[in-house]
Amino acid sequence: PRWHAASPKAARKILRMGSLFFVLQLAAAVAFASDNLIAAQVLGTAAVADYAITLQLFSLPMLLLGTLFAPLWPAYGEAVTRGDVIWVQQTLKRSMLLAAIVAALPSLLLVLWGVPLIHWWAGTSITPSFWLLLGLATWTVLQAIGNAVAMFLNGASVIRLQVICASLLALVGLAAKIILARQYGLPGIAWAT
Length: 193
What we know:
The chain is an all-alpha fold. Helix content is 86%, strand content 0%.
């Protein structure tokens, strides 16, 4: 590499895009990683274990989907660049459907058998309510579909819209989590998300 080969225009573009991704990740952290902190502050530290362990079960489908959908990001980018609208539309529809199915099936099983599974895994001191299980299941399905859409938006370089939406989600979600946690306990946090 040589300094004369560097392009200030390209550097500004990369810095702008990187800055947007940084803000997007901060907003996502506030929106999604604040649950345990809110549970501790509003409901007490004992509630954190109940929420965190239950939430951990619902993260398994998301790990699988993350692995499946990560390669779509560059594929969407290439297809958008080529103008292959039909492939993009078909792939987005299929990935959203796959995300919903892959997230819904285990989530349904966790709603039905989550309590015995948690008792086997973590002991009987943690017994999530039906409403907490249902709220986390609903969130898991919505998050899975949202992640499928995010891969398309990332590939199409539509980051500014994601930053705006994620920032609004972080602000509104944080307030909603606090309010609903006070009214409904742990299920309120899940449903607010």
